[in-house]
Queue: 2 jobs
Job 1
Amino acid sequence: MTDLLWLWILLGVVVVVGGGAALLVPRSRRRRLDEQVDRRDEGTTTVAPAPGRPAPEAAAAEPEVAEPAAPALETPEPVAGRLVRLRDRLARSGSPLGARLLSVLSRDHLTEDDWEELEETLLLADIGAGPAEELLEALRTRVRVLGVRDPKTVRDLLREELLKVVDPALDREVATTGPVGEDGTRLPAVVLVVGVNGTGKTTTVGKLARVLVAEDRSVVLGAADTFRAAAADQLQTWGARVGVETVRSDRDGADPAAVAFDAVRRGKTEGTDVVLVDTAGRLQNKAGLMDELGKITRVITREAPLAEVLLVLDATTGQNGLNQARVFGEVAGVTGIVLTKLDGTARGGIVVAVQRELGVPVKLVGLGEGPDDLAPFDPEEFVDGLLG
């Protein structure tokens, strides 16, 4: 009886131990599977190599996303070489001034109808009523007194009178040397660029930076046009091409006055020659936006005085450009004009009209779409281009 009892006890132990072992194996396997899944989710799954086989290659790393390559540094074209192109491009622009004026003035007998035709031609070229009358009176006197009719002499007379109304005596130099501060150090020359939408203002700032770099001036750009999403990117690209730093906001709609202030402060700290500040395009009839432009001006001058306020005008807008010029002159204190698209307009007389309206000179002109198609305005080259 005792032997039988011990036999039953032994069989029970064997069953319990064997069953427990059988239950433990699947749990350990499930634990290892769970751990393997977790590691797979984390991208760190590893597989143990089988005996006699080489270890499998590690899981391929995620491909790295390459940062956009910075634009290769460019060497801007020398400024002096651009003046030659002004005459050539104006001659190809189809200006009515040259051919029509010379054609009428070369006639044997100039009647009142001829003089009216000349006046109409000048007005169509947007030269303005005042300058047109002034020019015609001078021509009437000289033609009558001299009694000339040969084309060369007539052209010379017309050239002289056109040059007078364009006014070669105006100072057309863009200020690139700042004043000396109270501590004796040279402050940067701060150039504020203003204008309405669509005149090519941001592009003009980028091209002007190239002009300054070509003249060995150090430049900082201020992207104070914070309302147009692509404006800061566009300006930064222009600057990067010639190794110029751009100060910009990290978010759209930031305070443009704060960006302009930071740009001027950066230029002041780094001893930069010129700080170019781009502003948002503004419609001349939006009083609130114009007030904001006044705020930018006030904030900038806390760090350094303004050396220039350049108004960018589209030469193809004609007399409408005068309305823009008038309002900006009152609000921003414009010191110079930049005329874009001058090579593609038959209204070159806008140069004379806008100078008379504001009493400030045209300092720069846009000659085309190329990066170095911004040139200092030269009155003689301009008149020669109009006359073909």
Job 2
Amino acid sequence: MLPDGGLSLAFRPASLWRGDWWPGLFTSMFMHGGWGHVAMNALGVFAFAPPVARLMAGARGVAGFLGFYLVTGLVGTAGYGLIHPDTFDPLVGASGAVFGLMGAAFRLLGRRNGTLRALTDRRFLLMAAVVMAINMVVGLIGLAPGAEGARVAWEAHAFGFVTGALLIGPWSSLFRPRPTSFDSPPDLRDPSA
């Protein structure tokens, strides 16, 4: 509901390269192209954030999760800017961050103990290939609901996805809760037995 529709907070790659408006890398994640765009990103967060957030518990974990979300979104936006350095077309949305959560969550699928699938795991690679192929087709054809007349920044999605898949391992080890020496097993038996 901003007077200019939030376009002053959008990311425009050409302006970044000229040094005019670099905060757009960050502010664009909080602007959307309508309620349909907001709903699609919210559904993605609801679907892919829980497994990632479970890796990072407590106050440190909250900070770690928010940092992970923002970093994958920033890399997604910056990646789009690298591919389209001469465009002044506005980019808005948090899809790069949502795809970052998706890349991380795919590494966790089927793992109840919080371990990650290897980047070379067949199931991970197959899911990633299918999602990226659909992402590219939707982006090139422009079939995204709620995006009539707008380009879909599939490149930002791809950069966010790859960043999330690569970053979740080291990131979660930084923000995973530290075990204490006073932990007891759930059955309260003598730990030395």
